[in-house]
Each structure stands twice: as C-alpha cells, then as structure tokens.
C-alpha cells in the first residue's frame, strides 16, 4: 500500500536551496552549540521551534544536541531517514551555495 505524501508548503520547497537553509539558522538558539553552515550543508533547516531542525528531503526532525566533550555537534547519517535521497546522494533538487570539489 502506498500512502500519499503530505504536500510541502512554500517554506519547505525553498529549503532545497542550501543558502535558504543556512539563513534559517540566523534565529537558532546559541545554547545548542551547532554550526548552521554545517547543518545547512547536511540538508537541514531550522524550523523555528525550540532547537528543532528538519531535513528538507526526508523531513526528519532532530533536536538532540548533546555532545560528550562540548564541541560543536557533528552531523551524521543517523539524523536522516534510511531512504533519504539527500543522505544517499541521489537527490537532484539540492542547490548548494558553492560547488563542491
């Protein structure tokens, strides 16, 4: 059985642009010790709710920012759904700020 996907709102559609994702972190609380640039590069944008971020592709939320050594939180594949096209590298809609070399 296939379930229909919920329509994406205008804000989520714009989040395919890495720059828009990065800009969303301008209001991110500093207490989480998270790099907005790294998060945007990893496909996440700030939702505006507490310290919750969301992947623009798989739409998985993340808000657990505990680190053992107080360093900046590092992104990882476990933050995405296992079938996330962005995480798997098969997404063609992401528009990066800079070309990766």
TrEMBL record:
UniProt GO BP: negative regulation of apoptotic process; positive regulation of protein ubiquitination; regulation of cell cycle
Any Pfam family the entry gives: BIR
Identification of the protein by name: Uncharacterized protein
InterPro entries referenced in this protein's UniProt entry, alphabetically: BIR_rpt (IPR001370), IAP (IPR050784)
GO molecular function: cysteine-type endopeptidase inhibitor activity involved in apoptotic process; ubiquitin protein ligase activity
Gene Ontology CC annotation, any one: nucleus
Source organism: Dreissena polymorpha
């Amino acid at each position: 059985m296939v379930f229909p996907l919920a329509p994406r709102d205008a804000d989520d559609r714009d989040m395919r642009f890495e720059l828009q994702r990065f800009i969303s972190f301008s209001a991110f609380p500093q207490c989480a010790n998270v790099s907005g640039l790294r998060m945007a590069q990893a496909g996440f944008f700030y939702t505006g709710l507490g310290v919750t971020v969301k992947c623009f592709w798989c739409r998985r939320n993340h808000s657990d920012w505990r680190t053992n050594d107080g360093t900046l939180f590092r992104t990882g594949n476990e933050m995405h759904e296992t079938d996330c096209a962005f995480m798997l590298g098969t997404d063609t809609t992401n528009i990066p700020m800079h070309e990766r070399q």
